[in-house]
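Sorry, explain these tokens?

***
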Amino acid sequence: MHEENKAAANGCGKIRSGAQNGAALLALMEKTGYSMVQQNGQRKFGGPPPGWEGPPPPRGCEVFVGKIPRDMYEDELVPVFERAGKIYELRLMMEFSGENRGYAFVMYTTKEEAQLAIKILNNYEIRPGKFIGVCVSLDNCRLFIGAIPKDKKKEEILNEMKKVTEGVVDVIVYPNATDKTKNRGFAFVEYESHRAAAMARRRLIPGTFQPWGHTIQVDWADPEKVVDEETMQRVKVLYVRNLMISTTEDKIKAEFNKFKPGVVERVKKLRDYAFVHFFHREDAVAAMSIMNGKCIDGASIEVTLAKPVNKESSWKQHFNGQISPGSENLLGFPDKEDGAQKSLGKPASLAVRLNGQHSPGPPEVERSTYPIFPGIKLTPISMYSLKLSHFSSAVMHLDYFCHKNSWAPPEYCLYSTTSQDGKILLVYKVLISSIADDSQSYFMPEKLCTTVEDAKELAAQFTLLHLANCTPYLV
């Protein structure tokens, strides 16, 4: 083990001098008693730590760390992350050259320590002018399965998945919005571990498996948002799904007011789901217990607490490398009836923090298509007369807010460079020339994209995030 530690310690001597780097890392291991092994493009510090007994920490104990300076290593990182609690394992992603790849995963022994790390170390200045990003990291154990025949029941889908993949725990199937006897053409398959899910994805992707004579679509499901317990304890909004299209907001309000009149503040319904806002949290919790599984207009509803969306964090994930600019989270556009979203429960949405307000649930943006029937009347309209809920892209949001603040439209200047493998990489600089005070008037993200559309969207996201955090402009 000592020889492995020594080899790992010397692994990045190409960046720092071998003597300096090796001595610093060996001193860290001697001080802490942790081992260090480098394999498969990552260097693992601990896992488990010395004296550890029992299984590894549960899900939710690991954080993702982005924007790490490429010449920074464990001897500098460990003391910083130890401030939040005991480190079970730190995995630093490594380049063949000996530099790190700019990100790492730190697993703590408890969820509370991981949450504390996010709280005190996200946007922490780890070196002068160098700020790291820290957010929760979860092993994804869920696959999205699309193009499933709509007449198949949960049991049939479950049995079919168990035939060809191992470790299946559950299948989540949602009823069709207009015909509750059918499914929506997609399902989520939960596996016992990330490894089991990865093996299943590898088995299913080639297209050789065709259940019921259909070629299915397979991808990772978008991970569920994790909200800390302290925040959830303040939630007084319920998320209600599986409603009939015809069910009205008044009907929902009346049904939820039955157990205790006057407790519902308001209801917002979108297609077959709704958000029910209560005046007091205790009434929301009581209503959830009573109403979950009840029937409204013939549909058996599912009721849960709505998860607050920290929109600032959602935007920052793009800059920390957690979500690619072209992911379905941002650019997905499902069809009205058949559009399968890869996130569980709530629709994909654009996230932005405006005036510091966090919505009680997902932004209420319905991204769907409807048929144009013969004879339908179309009326000219200005985009600036619409509400925020009609915009789903950052480019449109930014244009809207420039207009609302009586600024000139944002100017996008395109720049390019060439990657080591010859790819053309693009980035936009955004200029807002009408900002009257001394605030920064141009903005450029620190990420390059491979397409013009993604580069423009990312630049608009970056600009909105900066304005939301640093100025009172967004109204």
Observations:
- Residues 9-15, 311-340, 345-366, 470-475 have pLDDT under 50 and may be disordered.
- The chain has 13 helices and 20 strands.
- The first helix runs from residue 2 to 9.
- The two ends are 59 Å apart (CA to CA).
